[in-house]
Amino acid sequence: MPPVTPRPRDPAPSRLSYRLQRLWLTPLVRALLKTGLPALVILVGVFWVLSDGNRIELVRQKVASTRYNIEHLPEFTVKLMRIDNASREVSDDIREVTAIDFPVSSFDLNLNEIRARIEELDAVASADLAIRSGGVLVVKVLERKPAIVWRSRDALELLDETGHRVAALARRTDRPDLMLIAGDGADQVVPEALRLFKVAGPIAPRVRGLLRVGQRRWDVILDRNQRIMLPETGAVAALERVLALNEMSDLLNRDIAVVDFRNGRRPTLRLNARALGLLRPVALKSDGVNPL
């Protein structure tokens, strides 16, 4: 018998293969297989887990355990707090208000809340917090600087240049380097008070302080029971005029009790009792009256 020659392989796809290929090219089928099928598998798995309370609790415990282990890795542990640019008293106050029990996970620290508590301190203008390598919580503090002493009705207070309270003061002699203001509302106009003290530089050794009168205007209190009464507006300019007169005529070294500049057009002087007693006979004599 002659040998059988094998038939050549037909390269055309089979009918089933052809139909499957055409089906794969359909956009809807491709979307269902690539997106819908995986989503369906996931939903079935989730439904299977949620259908049993024991499995739910097991998953919850596993998630909590994994989270706890991650959060308490040494890399995320804060061991101590460092406070920069703060005095010892302010540092102690910061540690007291934060009350952090170290070591603690950085995930358990709410930096915004801690910053808010620190900035509630009178002596702190602002605070910046950051966790540095080595597990150190760094607190950079901008501390308020006392600029003036305010004697209120109840106590002595240290105020900064804006009038914000810094701290209480036990005795005036504890801060003799700062000028004194007194009276209701004096803390609301600290910037003006500081300008007045600056203008009063030439007579600074004699200035005892500023008194706020009626929450409207200032009196400059000097030694020897002298007082300069300033107007409600233009107090700085009025004090400059008084000091100019003093430089020309040595006004404040005379026997004068009050220099009244509340009305700049009609400034008046009030003499001391001794000077008034010496002046009265002279005035009576000039009027033709015998003082005796």
Short description, anyone?
With 292 residues, the protein is of the alpha/beta class. The chain folds into 2 domains: 74-143, membrane protein fhac (Ubiquitin-like (UB roll)), CATH 3.10.20; 148-285, 3-Layer(aba) Sandwich (Rossmann fold), CATH 3.40.50.11690.
Characterization of this structure:
The protein is α/β, with parallel strands linked by helices and 292 residues long. It folds into two domains: 74-143, Ubiquitin-like (UB roll) (Roll), CATH 3.10.20; 148-285, Rossmann fold, CATH 3.40.50. Helix content is 38%, strand content 23%. It has eight helices and 14 strands. It has helices at residues 15-24, 27-50, 53-71, 88-98, 111-119, 190-199, 235-249, 273-286, and strands at residues 77-78, 80-84, 104-105, 124-132, 136-143, 148-151, 156-159, 165-169, 180-182, 207-213, 217-222, 227-229, 256-260, 268-271. The strands form three sheets. It has a nine-stranded mixed β-sheet with strand order 8-7-6-9-10-11-12-13-14. Strands 2-5-4 form a three-stranded mixed β-sheet, covered by helices on one side. A hairpin with a 4-residue loop joins strand 11 (217-222) and strand 12 (227-229). Helix 6 (190-199) packs parallel to helix 7 (235-249). The model is unreliable at 282-292 (pLDDT under 50).
- How many β strands by DSSP? 14
At the third CATH level, what is the topology name of the largest domain?
Rossmann fold
**For the record, what CATH class of the largest domain applies?**
Alpha Beta
Widest sheet, order of strands: 8-7-6-9-10-11-12-13-14
Round the mean pLDDT to the nearest integer and report it.
Answer: 85
Please name the fourth-level CATH homologous superfamily of the largest domain.
Answer: Cell division protein FtsQ/DivIB
- Count of discrete domains: 2
With helices defined by DSSP (H or I, 4 residues minimum), what is the helix count?
8
Uncertain runs are 282-292
Distance between the termini: 178 Å
